[in-house]
Specification:
Layout (H helix, E strand, L loop, with lengths): L1 H6 L2 H18 L7 H15 L11 H20 L7 H16 L2 H6 L1 H23 L3 H7 L1 H41 L1
Helix pairs in contact: 2-3, 4-5, 4-7, 5-7, 5-9, 7-9
């Protein structure tokens, strides 16, 4: 992977261009019998002088939201085939639906760091941890201790957290809609 990255880098391209210039010097008769050294030297000069590659630390918001959505969809699909209480499956679906509403707008989600953090935490940690903790219990133990009710309670808390986050995330759109409604009323 590092080799293919270097082959497409500016350093390699600049070195190749200067190396080709060295070959042209050889064919023109200006490099003499040391043409190999001239070609290699010009390649090295080009590779050393070319600017380094840009470092990109921030991921594309569309890719990031797509990865979160894939993780969420995979979790919802997996839960439907597992041993969870009947009340838990629709709650997980409701949480997923609220989160998808924000993941469908990746650029706006990236612009709201609090919402992005909350969605990432809900999808990557909180929701899977609640379900996994329940599934790690033997079925007889979970039934005896009422762990299904605990899972449902945790899912209710996660749903409330997702709704609070979505309400803050969509507040500006709701305000724009209300403003437009007042504008239309005032126009008459």
């Amino acid at each position: 992977m590092a080799i293919s990255r270097y082959l497409a880098s500016w350093k390699n391209l600049a070195g190749c261009v200067l190396g080709l210039a060295g070959l042209l010097l050889h064919f023109a008769g200006l490099a003499g019998s040391y043409w190999v050294v001239v070609v290699i030297g010009l390649y090295l000069v080009g590779a050393l002088v070319a600017p380094p590659e840009r470092v990109t630390l921030v991921t594309d918001p569309v890719e990031e939201a797509g990865a979160l959505r894939s993780e969420l969809d995979a979790l919802v699909l997996r839960v439907h085939g597992l041993r969870v209480p009947d009340e838990a499956k629709p709650r997980i679906g409701e949480i997923a639906e609220v989160l998808r509403g924000m993941l469908d707008r990746p650029r706006e989600l990236r612009a709201d760091p609090d919402a992005l953090h909350a969605v990432t935490r809900l999808v990557g940690t909180d929701l899977p941890l609640s379900v996994q903790s329940y599934l790690n219990l033997p079925w007889w133990y979970a039934a005896a201790k009422g762990s299904g009710a605990e899972l449902v309670r945790q899912l209710d808390l996660l749903h409330a957290d997702a709704v609070r986050t979505a309400e803050r995330f969509h507040a500006a759109d709701a305000q724009r809609q209300a403003d437009h409604g007042r504008y239309l009323e005032d126009r008459e």
